[in-house]
């Protein structure tokens, strides 16, 4: 499977990346836009007024509901990360944004392999047996141009920090600290 624009799984991946990288304000805007879209589609369905066929409208509704859930999860994750930072403030000069940005410059393929998940190059992507469930053929793909990973089976995905967080059941800040311990981050003194 390759990344093709217009392909539903690609759209989901891009949407997920957009949600993860959105600022808080953008996240609110995305949620508002999706809610309006959802209300319109539900209205169409209730009024029996749609240009597409009914299954298409229902699929559209399910898709938007799925996206809204992703937005809600992201908001919740951020809230948890902030609570965690408030509970354990650490060094007040710790600049998390800079450190998260620096982590995005890390070679994601090398880092994921350092975390014990071997990857094989196939086409433009790197593939692995997904560590988050049982499978025999690799469905976890790493896109080095976008520095993201995505599993086509379980639909988990995100950046390197998300990967470490999922793998070791950490929140974003814990995962960042963990990665900083074990990986050389370009431009950051050890
Ligand atoms: Zn998976």
Task: Please characterize this protein's 3D structure.
There is one protein chain. This protein folds into two domains: 8-87; 96-182, Alpha-Beta Complex (DNA Primase, Chain A). It is globular and about 55 Å long. It has helices at 8-21, 24-47, 54-87, 96-103, 108-114, 160-168, 172-182, and strands at residues 120-122, 125-128, 140-143, 148-151, 157-158. Strand 4 (148-151) and strand 5 form a beta hairpin. The chain has a five-stranded antiparallel sheet with strand order 1-2-3-4-5, with helices on both faces. The protein has seven helices and five strands; from the N terminus they run αααααβββββαα. The protein has 190 residues and is α+β, with helices and mostly antiparallel strands. Bound molecules: zinc ion. Zinc ion (ZN) binds next to loops. Zinc ion is lined by residues 130, 132-133, 139-140, 151, 153-154, 156.
Average residue-wise pLDDT: 84
Computed structural class: alpha+beta
Q: By CATH's scheme, which homologous superfamily of the largest domain applies?
A: Zinc finger, CHC2-typedomain
Number of strands: 5
- The CATH architecture of the largest domain: Alpha-Beta Complex
Tally the helices: 7
Largest sheet: 5 strands, antiparallel
Distance between the termini: 38 Å
Number of domain units: 2
Task: Report the CATH C-level class of the largest domain.
Answer: Alpha Beta
**Which ligands does the model contain, each kind named once?**
zinc ion
Beta-strand share of residues: 5-15%
Features of this protein?
190 residues, alpha+beta, DNA Primase, Chain A, 2 domains, five-stranded antiparallel β-sheet, 7 helices, 5 strands, 9% strand, globular
